[in-house]
Structures are given as C-alpha cells and as structure tokens.
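Nitroreductase family protein
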Amino acid sequence: MTTSLPAEVESNREPDHEINPQFLTRWSPRSFTNQEVSEDVLLSLFEAARWAPSGSNIQPWRFIVARTEEQLAKFHSFIAPANREWCEKAPVLALVISYTKTSNGNNSPSHAFDAGAAWGYLALEANNQGLVTHAMGGFDHNQAREILQIPEDYQTHAVIAVGYRGPVEALPERFQEREAPSTRRPVSEFLFDGSFGQTR
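Predicted structure tokens:
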C-alpha cells in the first residue's frame, strides 16, 4: 500500500491486491463515546446510502433512526442484552429494513441484497467522516416490528450503532480483546473460475 495505515489495521489486515485504504480502515468497533453526531454529518451517511446500486432502481432500503433519549430507549428494549452492554453509549442507532415487493406488487428477489449494498455505502462514508459503525443482528425482530410499527411488507435486517470511537478500556472486559480489526479469508477461497468450486 502506498498510504500508511493505522498500526492496529496494518497488523491485522494485509491486502493481496492494491485497493483504496478505506476498505481496510473500515471495521466495527464496539467502544463508542456519547459525543453527539451533527445533523449534517449524519445525513451525509444516508446520502451515501442513497446512491447504492439497486435492482430495477427500486431502492428498497429504509432506515429508522434513533437519536433522542426516548427513541434510543425504544431500540434498547429489543436489542439483545449482550449487544446492549456496549451499544448503549452510541449516540445514534439505525434499523435497516427493506421493502419486499416490486413496483407491480410481486415479491422482490433483490430487496435484501440491495439493502446490504446501501448499508455498505453508509459504513464507508461513516469511516470517511471519522465515525465508526457496527451492524448487529442480535435483536428481537418481532419486537422491533411491533415497537416501531413496521408494516408486514418490510423485512428487518440489522441495527447499526453510529458514533465516535471510544477507548478500549471503556468496554466490559470480555469485549476488550475483540476490539481490533478482523482479518478476512483470501480472494482465492471465494473466487471461482467458470463454475462453482473451480478455484483460480
């Protein structure tokens, strides 16, 4: 890499092929400060999500955002206890959902795929803005649907914690050793030539 990386990233992530450093420096910390995220900065994340690719340009993704004490308390009520241990300090929580129908009312085959792309764009822009994000699947989907009054034709996917990174020492001890960028399997393990299982 031509750009220097933070030491914690460099010691855990070594790309096999040249890429923009933003893909390496984005990871999912659990330690957050309670510093407020300004409206302009927060909206830039969703502006990035807006431009994600979308099958037939349906743009099925939706985000329900919690910022006030009352809104955050609602989210905390359906998040799994193990996740609440660290995410309660995050000043912003957002639930990613997607519309499951096409424009003619049929089931959409790509709504979840597209919502995942929108979350990826959001996460990269958060990193560009000096924020950290952590998406979690550990929450009660039925409770979330009921509490947030989500219609049946939307699917719930993940709760995203958004904010500024806090010190490792602020985490409960059992999370501290996990507070580092994770590695990834090499491209050779998931890239096939021509048919499934035919590695390059």
